Please model this.
Amino acid sequence: MREVYRQYWRINLLTTLEYRTNFLLWFGFTIVYHGTAIAALWVMLNNFPSMNGWDFNNMIFLYALWMTAHALNSTFFSTVGEIPQWIRDGEFDRLLVRPLDELFQVISTPGAIFPDELLLALAFLVVAIGANHLVVTAGFVALIALVVAGGAMIDLSIALLISTVAFWFVQVDALRWIVLQLEQEFTRYPLSIYNRGVRLLLAFVIPFGFMNYFPASYFLHKADNGLGLPIVIGVLTPLIGIAFLLVAYTCWRFGLQRYQGVGH
Model:
């Protein structure tokens, strides 16, 4: 499997280099997209100096944590989100007759993937850490790397669960769009500004809060997380990510065993 995955990245790199203009356009779009989101935060906090105790520097750290975790997932596991399309087109059935795990085949399918967003996210995370004057030690670097990895696992788990639903309903674009909007909109702001129902949803049902809010609260020493939970909960993101991924993979195996194709 390791050799297959190595070849996968080799093909990805060659594909990207072959279509350089497309890569540059996507890279430019990535900068504009995230730049617009950060500019919107600046405009908002220029008029209101803080949001429930979070100032602009705190908010960009919050955004940087989410951005890095999301980019890590997008770089290595973006093809998981394409499963519903493969099911509709009948392409997924090919994976069932090959002597490799189906999910591994999905992940190792070549495409035009390059870690441009991830590199940009890491650079922005460094800037956000500096802006908040956080003390950088070996332990801090290790912990924040684990948090980012856990956030990426949460992101991957949600994409996998949505793709699993496609085994029964085939067309799940609306569900995917709704969840994506929830992620992009609600992770930009502190969880504590929302009502209790939304807090519970984003903490324990769709745990986007563990991608950035709870760990950011821990690193920035924000005691009030809106749910009365101890601040140390912010370092549990890696465990939450593993647990949620195990749940998603169990659902995936359950759905796979009941998949009967779409009649192509």
Remarks:
- Residues 2-257 form one domain.
- The mean pLDDT is 86.
- The CA atoms of residues 157 and 245 lie 5 Å apart.
- The chain has one domain: 2-257.
